[in-house]
Design brief:
338 residues, alpha/beta, Spore Coat Polysaccharide Biosynthesis Protein SpsA, Chain A, nine-stranded mixed sheet, 11 strands
Length: 338
């Protein structure tokens, strides 16, 4: 592979010593070797830093970035790593989590899909490629062959922005982004809920999202990530879920999603990116939450815009929040109240 196909892999770590070596070894076993693994630890108190130093000494493709004693948090950590890669001229960037396992052809298959998409859309189109993934337990045994089915999410080949404003369906540790998308999305703003959701929104608004319909890695389900790994049906089970907490968290995330959309609209205008129809949709989504809107008018407008989640249950909850939503202003900042 030539330098145009060189891939930067970004890995943020935090107290991940238990599974970290297996993940890095799986990256080292890829069918292609034209890659650089940029790693930044975010203040681990376990053996993570020592392990990273040892692994980097053994493989020159691994580079541990200085942390300057700062704890950035997940989103800022990946934004920092992506910015470093962009400044080095990265054409393609992938995201990795510290406790997963990559299948040997992950880079090869994702890159092939990316370059096919670039030929179809033009190479200067901001593009994101994501894939499905398997779910394994802490011992490496399969829990489910498809994380997307497990979570009741799916790739949206058309009108992805209508869904992404409401719900993310891109799993960051499967994703590859190209340089034109980096130019739009970086730096990841503090209002972004997660870096993968932000990159997906930027790609949907400005370019394209493509999908590899197979698992390219194993997502490890263990006690420290149970919120994202418990599955859709377990979450829906009232005997195993505190619905009051789910409702409260959902309201908070809904409010943050609106702030994220406001920031997206500002970014598109600032960079001169995105189609007129994409900007109008984002602006309309934000406008639904204005304090002068009535519940029925919000609901009617959301239906007309085609805003939806990916299950009837999630969509119904989204519409219920809109029906009862009131936006207030306090000290110049948005406050949300049912």
């Amino acid at each position: 592979m030539d330098d145009q196909q060189h891939t930067y892999i970004l890995l943020g770590t935090y107290n991940g010593a238990r599974y970290l070596q297996a993940q890095i070894e799986s990256i080292g076993a890829q069918t292609v070797d034209n890659w650089t693994l940029l790693i930044r630890d975010d203040g681990s108190s376990d053996a993570t830093r020592k392990l990273l130093t040892s692994l980097a000494d053994a493989d020159p493709r691994l580079e541990v970035m200085p942390d300057e004693g700062k704890n950035l948090g997940c989103v800022r950590n990946y934004s920092h790593l992506a910015t470093v890669a962009f400044e080095r001229g990265a054409r393609y960037v992938m995201f990795a989590d510290q406790d997963d396992v990559w299948f040997p052809a992950k880079i090869e298959q994702t890159l092939e899909c990316m370059q096919t998409a670039e030929r179809r859309h033009r190479s200067d189109t901001p593009t994101l490629v994501h894939t499905d993934l398997e779910v394994i337990d802490q011992h490496g045994l399969q829990v489910h062959p498809s994380f997307m089915h497990f979570q009741r999410i799916r790739h949206e080949p058309r009108w992805a922005l209508r869904t992404l404003l409401v719900q993310n369906f891109v799993t960051g540790c499967t994703a590859m982004v190209n340089r034109p998308l980096l130019a739009v999305a970086l730096p990841v703003p503090d209002d972004a809920l997660m870096h993968d959701w932000w990159f997906a929104l930027c790609a949907a608004a400005c370019g394209a999202i493509d999908f590899v319909p197979r698992g390219t890695m194993a997502y490890r389900r263990h006690g420290e990530n149970t919120v994202t790994a418990r599955g859709f049906w377990r979450t829906m089970n009232p005997l195993r879920t505190d619905w009051r907490q789910v409702w409260s968290v959902g309201i908070h995330d809904h409010a943050r999603a609106v702030l994220q959309a406001e920031t997206l609209l500002a970014r598109l205008c600032e960079r001169g990116s995105g189609s007129g129809s994409a900007k109008r949709l984002v602006e309309a989504y934000v406008g639904l939450h204005g304090k002068h809107q009535t519940g029925p008018s919000r609901l009617a407008r959301a239906l007309a815009l085609g805003l939806r989640s990916q299950t009837l249950t999630r969509t119904a909850v989204f519409y219920l929040r809109l029906l009862r939503w009131t936006r207030l202003a306090s000290a110049g900042a948005p406050v949300w109240r049912l």
